[in-house]
Amino acid sequence: MTETVTVGIIGASGYGGVQLVRLLQDHPHLDIAYLAGDSSAGKAFTDLYPHLHNRVDLKVEAIDLDAIADRCQVVFLSLPNNLAYNMAPALVAKGCKVLDLSADYRFADLNVYQEWYGGDRQDGAIAATAVYGLPELYRSDIQKANLVGCAGCYPTATLLALAPLLKQGLIDLETIVIDAKSGASGGGRHAKTNLLLAEAAASIGAYGVARHRHTPEIEQISSNLSGQPVLVQFTPHLMPMVRGILSTVYAKLRDPGLVTEDLSTIYNAFYRNAPWVNVLPHGVYPQTKWACGSNLCYLGVEVDPRTRRVIVLSAIDNMIKGQSGQAVQCLNLMMGWDETLGLPKLAFYP
Ligand SMILES: NC(=O)C1=CN([C@@H]2O[C@H](COP(=O)(O)OP(=O)(O)OC[C@H]3O[C@@H](n4cnc5c(N)ncnc54)[C@H](OP(=O)(O)O)[C@@H]3O)[C@@H](O)[C@H]2O)C=CC1
Ligand SMILES: CC(=O)N[C@@H](CCC(=O)OP(=O)(O)O)C(=O)O
């Protein structure tokens, strides 16, 4: 019989936190032992999320790292960037397994992190032990890790689309263009003017053009997969919807003889042991709705014979495969469990 593992969530009051609470309630081996927050400390969780009335009887407590480490074997950090690196070292030192949902532990080179995120880091030694939390690409490293920097939402969708092309040297590396769209929940629960209904509804716009902070994250892992430095053109858009990311990736194929059927075979082989990646049949292109509420990533692949470009479409739920679901998938691997354990397999649909 597998023992129950005690879990804490720091940043429980946010969207990542409430998703984790939902997933952990359905997980057979995980038990929530500590919910921590900042301005929400002292409140009942149902005061923040009344739909959980009579379903979740937990209180948000202050962030007390000693108390959290005493009560929890595993800690999820679901905080804005630049906070986790002040907490993870103490938690790991006290024997907790830590999964960070922010960008703090996603970068192998902390100079790159500081260039894009700022901050003043004194945690180089512990940061060097962190593993990038994208299980389809780093499964065996995650299995051995005590600290995981879970992949970002746009990078998850985009890297799963790009990985087979990069690993097998199929594309001209300087031709990668990524056009991505996200729902408003990607911005978190705190108030932001651009996420007001009156601003975001019935409208589409790009943001962070040529400077979004997911660019260096995508480039770091792309370079790692291809073995050569990679620069990408990445443009995110805010869509008038709540959940979901669709990332459409374009690149020039090196071999002019490759057709869509060849790419389909390559993608199916690459992801044959990846239970959360669903490679669609030729001519079927994913929609965000298909992934919403589930931990799945849907991929559609096409070659345009006129331009010699491959086009890969990738759809995920930004808050499940792009955030909390991915973190639970990583934890399943760290604990030696099946990576599908306790995670939602089908979308809400419609
Ligand atoms: N939303 C998404 O789709 C995705 C988000 N992420 C990342 O996950 C992390 C959490 O995101 P999300 O849940 O959306 O964010 P939210 O804004 O919804 O929640 C933020 C949480 O952080 C806490 N917090 C804020 N400031 C502080 C502080 N100074 N000290 C301690 N705690 C603080 C808040 O606590 P309180 O309310 O008590 O003040 C709240 O619980 C972020 O790093 C985000 O980039 C990653 C992938 C996808
Ligand atoms: C719509 C919206 O604002 N999306 C967010 C998504 C980023 C996010 O969630 O952050 P990480 O994945 O890096 O943790 C943004 O573009 O900043």
Please give a structural write-up.
The chain has 13 helices and 14 strands. With 350 residues, it is an alpha/beta fold. The chain folds into 2 domains: 125 residues, NAD(P)-binding Rossmann-like Domain (Rossmann fold); 165 residues, 2-Layer Sandwich (Dihydrodipicolinate Reductase, domain 2), CATH 3.30.360.10. The strands form 2 sheets. It has a 7-stranded parallel sheet, sandwiched between helices. A 7-stranded mixed sheet has the order 9-10-8-11-14-13-12. Strand 1, helix 1 and strand 2 form a beta-alpha-beta unit. The longest helix has 15 residues. It is globular. It binds NADPH dihydro-nicotinamide-adenine-dinucleotide phosphate (NDP) and N-acetyl-L-glutamyl 5-phosphate. The site of NADPH dihydro-nicotinamide-adenine-dinucleotide phosphate has 30 residues, from helix 1 and helix 13. The site of N-acetyl-L-glutamyl 5-phosphate (X2W) has 10 residues, from strand 10. It comes from Prochlorothrix hollandica PCC 9006 = CALU 1027. Its EC number is 1.2.1.38. InterPro entries: AGPR, AGPR_AS, AGPR_dimerisation_dom, AGPR_type-1, NAD(P)-bd_dom_sf, Semialdehyde_DH_NAD-bd.
State the share of residues found in helices, binned by percent. Answer: 25-40%
Small molecules in complex: NADPH dihydro-nicotinamide-adenine-dinucleotide phosphate, N-acetyl-L-glutamyl 5-phosphate
Give Rg in angstroms. 20 Å
Count of DSSP-assigned helices: 13
The ordered H/E elements are: EHEHEHEHEHHEHEHEHEHEEHEHEEH
| Overall pLDDT | 97
Q: How many individual domains?
A: 2
Spatial strand order of the main sheet: 3-2-1-4-5-7-6
| Residues in β-strands, percent | 15-25%
